[in-house]
From TrEMBL:
EC annotation from Swiss-Prot or TrEMBL: 5.3.1.23
Active-site residues (renumbered): 221
Similarity annotation: Belongs to the EIF-2B alpha/beta/delta subunits family. MtnA subfamily.
Pfam families: IF-2B
Encoding gene (name): mtnA
Protein name per the record: Methylthioribose-1-phosphate isomerase
UniProt GO molecular function: S-methyl-5-thioribose-1-phosphate isomerase activity
Length: 329
């Protein structure tokens, strides 16, 4: 399963706002609508928006347009996932090296894409080792093939554990307000014949209290140097409830999601999204039009609630500040 393709100097994005009902691939030959696609979550997920932005940068080069302006436009699409900025800075370095020539830039974007899939598979292998036999796993939002270049981070761990015969059940939070869990994670798990049970977000704690959950694993949009991390809103609740119930809580991410420039999670920019994402559900109004709304797309989980950090280089345990730094030599 994938969400991003590059064919014939055209970027194709699977429109994730239409899943799971219809699979619609949208073509892009201009970088500007790709920025809109990131903003409107046609493509979403930290690594996936980095890969999409890298290809969009190539579209600007192919059109002979200003690469600085392209980078600025793409970087302004969403503020939290550091992979977006990491990918654009890597493309800018390549552009300086090759004088902005399209072909080397396309090769670089393809390398970013392929490396992301490889990192997800490595993460999956490392993560599967911490999953117990007959595991009943809770996950939140979508950190799967649709959120990455392919295979997934948290879902990559689940895929690898399933391949090792270790998965009894995956409980996926529907993940309000945009239902990435219901629409995307359940779609991925059902497509891969991995046992899945969809739950409303507010059911997770009672499942833990009943002893139904053995481990939780989630994705990440940005991690600070001390291991505090931002992920989809509701992740903090999962972490607090897992901690209370003594359930191992893991976060899976590529090293490109770690932002060592931030000492702790207080510096992570949290995207505030449109209020109607909470007041409506697929175009149907579910709350008074005039009611005030708070709609942060992410929350920050303190490293003190994290059991381990699953990366493509291995599983990192506390002390996170010291052990994360070692990942970067
Ligand atoms: C593999 S990172 C996926 C990460 O991104 C999601 O956010 P969004 O759907 O708003 O892009 C969510 O936080 C996932 O954990």
């Amino acid at each position: 399963m994938d969400a991003i393709r590059w064919e014939g100097n055209t970027l194709y994005l699977l429109d994730q706002t239409k899943l799971p009902v219809t699979e619609v691939w949208l073509p892009y030959t201009d970088y500007r609508p790709v920025a809109d696609a990131i903003r409107t979550m046609v493509v979403r997920g930290a690594p996936a928006i980095g890969v999409a932005a890298a290809y969009a940068y190539c579209l600007a080069a192919l059109a002979g347009e200003g690469l600085d302006e392209a980078k600025e436009t793409l970087a302004a699409s969403r503020p939290t996932a550091v992979n977006l900025f990491w990918a654009l800075e890597r493309m800018e370095r390549k552009a300086k090296e090759c004088g902005g020539a399209a072909e080397p830039l396309i090769a670089e974007a393809k390398a970013i894409h392929a490396e992301d899939v490889a990192m997800c598979r490595a993460m999956g292998a490392h993560g599967a080792a911490v999953v117990p036999e007959h595991a009943r796993i809770l996950t939140h939002c979508n950190a799967g093939a649709l959120a990455t270049g392919g295979y997934g981070t948290a879902l990559g761990v689940i895929r690898a554990a399933h391949e090792a015969g270790k998965v009894n059940m995956v409980y996926c939070d529907e993940t309000r307000p945009l239902l990435q869990g219901a629409r995307l994670t359940a779609y991925e798990l059902v497509s891969d014949h991995i046992p899945a049970t969809l739950i409303a977000d507010n059911m997770a704690a009672s499942l833990m209290a009943k002893g139904k959950i053995d481990l939780a694993v989630v994705g990440c949009d940005r991690m600070a140097a001390n291991g505090d991390f931002a992920n989809k809103i509701g992740t903090y609740s999962v972490a607090v409830n897992a901690h209370y119930h003594g359930i191992p809580f893991y976060v899976a991410l590529p090293c490109s999601t770690i932002d060592l420039s931030l000492a702790d999670g207080s510096g992570i920019p949290i995207e505030e999204r449109d209020r109607d994402e909470v007041r409506t559900l697929y175009g149907t109004r579910t709350a008074p039009e005039s009611v005030e709304v708070c709609n942060p797309a992410f929350d920050v989980t303190p490293h003190s609630l994290v059991t381990g950090i699953i990366t493509e280089k291995g599983v990192i345990y506390p002390p996170f500040q010291e052990n994360l730094q070692k990942l970067f030599g």
